[in-house]
Design brief:
CATH architecture of the largest domain: 3-Layer(aba) Sandwich
Number of helices: 12
Strand order of the largest sheet: 2-1-3-4-5-12-11
Bound molecules: beta-D-glucopyranose
Number of domains: 2
Strand content: 15-25%
Largest sheet: 7 strands, mixed
Helix content: 40-55%
CATH superfamily of the largest domain: Response regulator
Oligomer: single chain
CATH class of the largest domain: Alpha Beta
Radius of gyration: 22 Å
Shape: globular
Number of strands: 15
């Protein structure tokens, strides 16, 4: 039976390769719409996606829309006019693409929501990471680092910084962290001196580093100016963590270095982790995200309707999810990759991905993308 299964698997793989080669010959045009070059990770996503799709024989049109939702609409409209067969979109605003994507549907274009869900639009699939787990990992890091389980009567002060309300991911990250910490908040082991505990109160439009910096400076001035100790700055991602870390360096009166969380493994943040002004980041290997997207697009263009079985073909671990991501028109079938925690003690795990290397002095990590 096992032998039969492996023969079937090999035949499937050969057939799949044949299909890729066939499409490679045709050179189908794929449109890739990224939000902005100003947030580091999207440059990596854009490069990995372009590289991998071109290597598989596709033609690629890649746009960055300067974090401007109107421009992203225009960029997508242009790609539709250019005759793309597939659109891979990381939305700037999850709610403003319905109309242009209705045009895409009419033109028979397959749309993949990449990393961020797109609401109220006809989306074939969603490829992302387990976004809720990102927040869980940040919270779990805090629980372990402060040994909250055994805190007894000790109390710790925490402040939250969340992401862009226009990005569906931001709520998942925040809820994953907050839900995981809720029992310590309820028990009074964790205190929030600013009282800012709702997503709306701590959101950071456009994930802006400058806004996060300014907001945190205000929090520090209003609630920590009297010497109150800050133990944790729970930040949803690296661009906000960069601002918060800066605010702590310039405006925090306390002697201790608070725990600062993040997400993405941006180069500047990894330097901060080495230097101690940020504590951890949640890493999401975006070259794997691009690889999963390529396998998915190949399968769709090959006439398949991929499901859980496609996960076997990925180089990375991913789950097929048909429950979590409802975009208003129904649940979008999703492939969700696995995020993991990085701190100063396991930076070598990043080198193992092939996406980073140590600099000449062996002190900081640099990107292998160049
Ligand atoms: C992504 C994060 C990123 C944030 C800002 C989110 O949608 O999932 O990885 O940090 O956008 O770019």
């Amino acid at each position: 039976m096992k032998k039969l299964l492996s023969i079937v698997l090999v035949v499937c793989m050969v057939l799949a390769l044949g299909a890729v080669a066939a499409y490679a010959d045709e050179g189908d045009l794929v449109g890739i719409s990224m939000p902005t070059k100003s947030l580091e990770r999207w440059n990596r996503d854009g490069s990995y996606l372009k590289e991998q799709f071109e290597a598989a024989g596709y033609q690629v049109e890649l746009t960055y829309s300067d974090n401007d939702a109107v421009q992203q609409n225009n960029d997508i409209a242009n790609m539709i006019a250019d005759g793309v067969k597939v659109l891979i979109i990381a939305a700037i605003d999850s709610d403003t693409l319905s109309s242009v994507l209705a045009d895409a549907a009419e033109a028979g274009i397959t749309v993949i929501a990449y990393d961020r869900l797109i609401n109220n639009a006809d989306i074939a699939y969603y490829v992302s990471f387990d976004n809720y787990t990102v927040g869980v990992l940040q919270a779990q890091y805090v629980i372990d680092a402060l040994d909250l389980e055994n805190a007894g009567d000790k109390t710790f002060n925490i402040e939250f910084t969340a992401g862009d309300p226009a990005d569906t991911n931001a709520g998942y990250f925040f809820n994953g962290a907050k839900d995981t910490l809720q029992k310590y908040l309820d028990a009074g082991t964790l205190l929030v001196p600013s009282g800012k505990l709702t997503f709306e109160q701590v959101a950071t439009p456009q994930w802006s580093t400058d806004t996060a910096l300014e907001n945190f400076q205000n929090t520090l001035a209003s609630f920590y100016g009297d010497g109150t100790v800050l133990d944790v700055a729970l930040c949803s991602n690296d661009s906000t963590a960069a601002g918060v870390a800066q605010a702590i360096v310039s405006d925090y009166a306390g002697e201790n270095q608070p725990i600062v969380t993040g997400q993405d493994g941006d180069i500047g943040n990894l330097q901060n982790i080495v230097d101690g002004t940020q504590t951890m980041t949640v890493y999401k290997n975006v070259s794997d995200e691009a690889g999963v997207t390529l396998v998915l697009v190949d399968a769709i263009l090959n006439g398949e309707t991929p499901g859980a079985e496609l996960c076997e073909k990925f180089d990375a671990d991913a789950a097929f999810d048909t429950e979590t991501y409802d975009n208003g028109l129904g649940v979008v079938p999703s492939y969700l990759l696995v995020p993991y925690s990085i701190d100063k003690d396991n930076l070598d795990l990043l080198v193992e991905t092939g996406n980073y290397e140590w600099d000449a002095d062996g002190v900081y990590l640099v990107s292998t993308l160049g």
